[in-house]
Every structure is written in C-alpha cells, then in structure tokens.
C-alpha cells in the first residue's frame, strides 16, 4: 500500500487496522515508510504486522550536464531526451537576493528577466515538476534544479515539461555563485541518456522517512529498503508524465521516485517467497526478508545515506536492502502468531475497546500482556535505556532450513553497552523445530543519559546461513 500519513496510535490508524485483518487472513502487507526524510522520526505505517519499506537507489543513472560560460562542466541527471535545446549557450538567471523567485513558485518569475533563458530553481516547497512548468510559463527555455541542504546530494530524475538538469547541493552552490558573480552568465544543457553499473549503489534515498518509531519505540522501523529512486514502470495515459494538469503529453511508461515505488517491490518479493513456501505466515515472510537483507553496496562499503554522504544506520535503512535470493532460504525465521500480536497490543496501555478496534474479536480480555512491548518476537531489536539499565528479551527461532543444523551467535554493539546471549549455540534436529534464546543488554555506568543513538546486530550463523537482526540503542534519562 503506497499511502499513509503521519503516525498515530494503532486504533486511530486506518491502514494499521485494515492491515491487521489482512495479516490474520494470511495476507502479507507492505507499506511505504514515507517521503519525509531525512527528518528524524518521520515514519508512517510503523505497526509491527506491516512491512515498513524505505527507498534506495539502483545502479542506473540518467546523466546530464550543465556547461557554464566559464567552460566548467557540472554533472547532474535528467530524463530529457536532448531534442530541441541545441548546445549553444543561453543566458542563465538566478535572483541575487533570497526571494521566492529562487524557488520558482507559481507567479514568482518575471517574464522580462526569464524569457529565452535557463533559470536556476532551488529544490523545495513546491513539486519539482511544477518548478519546470513555472519556468516554461514565464518564457524560460530550460531549468537547472539545484538541491539545498535538505536533499543534499540526492538526484531524482523527473519527466519535466522543458529541458532540465537536476544537480546536488555542492554543485548547485557553485552554479548559483557563478550566476550571481558573472556579469553575463550563460549555460548550455547537455543530455547523456542512460548509464548502468553506477557506483556506489544502492544508497539510501535522502527523502526516505527515518526512525525512530514514535508510536512504539521498542519496535525498530523502518524494516528494510528496496528500489525506490528513478523506477521505470507502466503509466496511465489518462494523465501526463508529470501529473500536472497542463501536461498534455501521453506516455505508456514513466520514471518515478518515492517509497511508493519501493514498497510494491517488497510485495512482489513476498509473492515470490509465498510461491516457494505456501505454508509460511506473513510474519515468517517478513522475517526472511529482514534477516537476509544486506548492508554492503557494490563497492563493498557500508550502505551510504544520500542526505549527507555518511554511512546509513538502521533508522534510515532498517535491516538493509532486500535480497530476493537469500530470502528464499533464510535458515531460521522469527514467527509471530495472532495471539502474540494481541498480547503486544494489550501491553501498549490501550483500553480493551481500543484493542477491539484493531483486532475485532468479541472476547478480548487482555489477560496476557508483555511487561515491555519489545518482547514481541520481532526480527529486530530496539532497546530503550531509561528508568532501567538492563533490558532482557527472549526470542524464538523456527528452523525452516535443513534438519540437524547448528547455529552460533555473534553480537556486535557499541562500547557503551554489554550484550550477552544465552545459549550461545542453537541445535535444530528437525525442520519446523522452535528454539528460544535470551539476550541481555546492559547500559554501562558512566554513559551520558542523553547519549546519541547507537546501533549493533545479533547474528545466528553457520556455513550456510547468516540470520541477522539489527539492534538500535536509545538513551532517555538514566537513573542509577
């Protein structure tokens, strides 16, 4: 489901309520995490019975270039086919003051200044494709869409109404400076078609919404990322490729970006896994995708974050980028029954009526509750140190791999936290056998109570499988 807005208690979240009934009927539900990144705590659709999907890039790009009058050539992206602009330089316009015309908002451009020229538009406030329409309507012949700090170096290609090149913040600042300082700034826009094998990829999209989960902080979200930037797919001819009313073009395909593009990929993978394992529950399928996700890109580096170029963390990428091949044989899964989800809901401080809004069973009594909602048998961990320094969770793994298999545990975490797991090895004699382990997290004394979030992992592995769970650690006020 490529929709959602904000986050609310689950009994007020219509998507969470509908998805609960779907999950009860054996239907896997994948939802967009939202496009409000890189702002922290901007997630939607965080219910634990939903797969919450962020967006990453592909190893494909659509390069374009802005060649300035000073002969410097800057790289960007564009879907423009390159016909009709020519490669002779034209005037370049950018307002010297911080006016609304820099954002290319409707009605903000003066046709006398813009006619026959390329306009630099700052990204933000209105839709990217709308900026191109504003430039075109004012008589401009092209646009350079320049990022600001919010979108950093992330480049998104759009089906603009006129020749346009999108550039990152750093290059955008250099082009803005040239336009402001040169007496007669000019530019020629050039278009480079499609390139493959782009490195590094995948990269977490800057727009992909971020954790932490504000509805249930003990459940780590998002779950995973999937392909969500510059996705090629079928398009209705009822509307032009920009979606704008004034776009009269017709096309059967379009390129779009957003977590609305990534979450259907994950539904497709769930269908693939369900075809291979028809008896698996939605929670088992979800576990398979989460515990086999990868966190290394095609340069063997940790996955980067497009927002600022730093390494990403689980609040941006969840467990990592989905891996269809590995998810078909995860070895072990963290399964969750309907009753366990009800126990989870009963431990959130909701009234019985609130729980019934979601579960719709007449005879709910909430006689069973978790001491802590993080006790749900989730494939990842979100550890909150606050009034307690010790957090202990027991998880249950189901063997979906070979009989007679042994798994050993490896933990990874920050120096500020002690992590111990008992037992250290699990032996599964049969397929379908379930085994439990208990993990204890201890916040070491002397840790600052408002320390920044930290991350780690717990991996159950053998020669054939690595069953990996991401872990986040947050500190609120710590008491002795």
Automatic annotation (TrEMBL):
- Pfam family example for this protein? PA
| Domain of life the protein comes from | Eukaryota
Single GO molecular-function term?
Answer: serine-type endopeptidase activity
Q: Which InterPro entries match?
A: PA_domain, Peptidase_S8/S53_dom, Peptidase_S8/S53_dom_sf, Peptidase_S8_Ser-AS, SBT, Subtilisin-like_FN3
SUPFAM superfamilies cross-referenced by the UniProt entry: Subtilisin-like
Q: Alphabetically, which GO biological process terms does the record hold?
A: proteolysis
Tell me which residues make up the PA domain: 93-174
User: Which residue ranges does the record assign to the Peptidase S8/S53 domain?
Assistant: 1-298
What keyword terms does UniProt attach to this protein?
Answer: Glycoprotein, Hydrolase, Protease, Serine protease, Signal
Under PROSITE patterns, the record lists:
SUBTILASE, SUBTILASE_SER
Q: Where is the Subtilisin-like protease fibronectin type-III domain?
A: 375-472
Write down the PANTHER family for this protein, in alphabetical order: PROPROTEIN CONVERTASE SUBTILISIN/KEXIN
**What does the similarity note say?**
Belongs to the peptidase S8 family.
Its recorded name reads: Subtilisin-like protease SBT1.7
- The record lists the organism as Hibiscus syriacus
